[in-house]
Amino acid sequence: MSEKKHRQCCVVMRISLDCNACCRKVRRILTSMKGVDTHVIEKKEDRIIVCGRLRPSDVVVKLQKKMKRRVGILEVEDLTGGDGREEGFHDHEPPYEQEREYSEQQPDCMTAPLLSWFP
Fold first, then answer.
1. How far apart are alpha carbons 11 and 77 in whole angstroms?
2. Backbone torsions φ then ψ of 69, nearest 5 degrees
3. Which one of 15, 53, 65, 98 has the minimum C-beta count within 10 Å?
4. 8-66 pLDDT, tens per residue?
5. pLDDT one-digit tens code per residue, 32-47
């Protein structure tokens, strides 16, 4: 898979951090991720701040899978210079499911009897 260009940003997330072991696990997950430059774990506020060339949704998904806890994005700060646009950069992330185009076709033989019941 080719290296994608991600924007430089800082993400503030909320996650329940009960003990020091949770903090160590989060730290281990974040340090193993590519693109993460710096991170700050605030145990008392149940917050994590991650900075680097990354996609905020990728960090959230990875933390949710590894920690088995809900992770919420509180704030995303874009740190790219200028207008924040780079070559190949889009304002929105691609949707997980592609939209399907529905064409006007004749109903098949299985749905035709059902359609006759409703006016």
1. 6
2. -140, 160
3. 98
4. 999 999 999 999 999 999 999 999 999 999 999 999 999 999 999 999 999 999 999 99
5. 999 999 999 999 999 9
Give me the sign of the Cα torsion angle 64, 41, 14, 36.
negative
57/15 Cα distance (integer angstroms): 14
Q: Does this model's pTM top 0.70?
A: no
Structure tokens at 1: 């898979």
Render the burial of 63-76: b for 16+ CB within 10 Å, e for the rest.
beeebeeebeeeee
Q: What is the DSSP letter of 75?
A: E
How far apart CA 78 and CA 4 sit, in angstroms, is: 17
**Whole-number Å distance between alpha carbons of 24 and 98:** 38
User: How big is the chain by its Cα radius of gyration, in Å?
Assistant: 22
Distance CA 34, CA 12 (A): 18
Query: Would you call 78 helix, strand, or coil by DSSP?
Result: strand
What is the rounded CA–CA span in Å between residue 55 and residue 10? 10
